[in-house]
Amino acid sequence: MANYKDDNSEAPQRFLPAGNETTKEILKKHDSFAEWAARQHYDVIILPFSAFLSAGRRIKELKQSAAEYGISLEAGGHELSNLVPRNYFFFHRDFFRMVEGRRVKTCHFCPTNPGTIALLGSEAGKYFRAAEDVKVFHLWPDKDAETVWCSCPTCRAFSPLEQNRIAVNTAADILAAINPNAFITYFEKPGDGGNIPLRANLLKMETLPEPVAEPRFSSGRERDQGNG
Ligand SMILES: [Zn+2]
């Protein structure tokens, strides 16, 4: 529930969230990437959850390379919605967000449906187990749609912020059981209230890092110029 900060320093940590395509490149060239990230003064590399399921060995290599520069690996990003996979829409429309009486597949989901919660928990568990030595997971809402949540009769009693809290609390309970020393970051805009208490293994982020579109790390000799 505290803000996410480096305990040893006043300076905020510098995060590098990687998208799926960038992650493939990063994992192929873990040595030169780690060196590049160090030169750019990054403290943390955030890889998408899916990479931990499909590329375990390469992630271990990257972790080693990054550790040489004091950079840690974390998992997730704008991935809260991925815990309710969109292909469930066909058979379980009720898991998804209601807008003006209709269920829609875009943005988040219906967090008060027990079926949604069960699915979210099992998907989160799958990722938390695949990334068992990760200490910090990031579960941020959909970019530029942070307050776009469900308006079904049950969810209507909860603000978008509270719906987000219901979702991250569910994941936090699963993580506490699988990896009691790990944390989840969630996103809330500054100044928002909310009546849902948060689990102790949740850390708030009030600003989110932008992904780096094309890190120019392919050649070790290349000199990066002011790319952040
Ligand atoms: Zn709902």
How is this structure best described in words?
By secondary structure, the protein is α/β, with parallel strands linked by helices. The chain has 2 domains: 64 residues, 2-Layer Sandwich (Endonuclease, Chain A), CATH 3.30.870.30; 114 residues, no CATH class. It is built from 6 helices and 8 strands. The two termini are 29 Å apart. Bound molecules: zinc ion. The site of zinc ion has 7 residues, from loops.
Which helices and strands, and how do they pair?
Elements: E1 15-17, H1 20-28, H2 30-39, E2 44-47, H3 49-54, H4 56-67, E3 72-77, E4 97-99, E5 102-104, H5 114-130, E6 136-139, H6 160-178, E7 183-187, E8 202-205
The structure holds zinc ion.
Helix and strand element order = EHHEHHEEEHEHEE
Binned strand content = 5-15%
**Helix content range:** 25-40%
Give the overall average pLDDT: 88
Low-confidence stretches: 219-228
Radius of gyration computed on alpha carbons: 18 Å
Largest sheet: 6 strands, parallel
Provide the structure class: alpha/beta
Strand segment tally: 8
Q: What form results from the Cα inertia axes?
A: globular
Quaternary structure type:
single chain
Short description:
This protein is α/β, with parallel strands linked by helices and 228 residues long. The protein has helices at 20-28, 30-39, 49-54, 56-67, 114-130, 160-178, and strands spanning 15-17, 44-47, 72-77, 97-99, 102-104, 136-139, 183-187, 202-205.
Features:
228 residues, Endonuclease, Chain A, 2 domains, two-stranded antiparallel sheet, 6 helices, globular, disordered C terminus, binds zinc ion
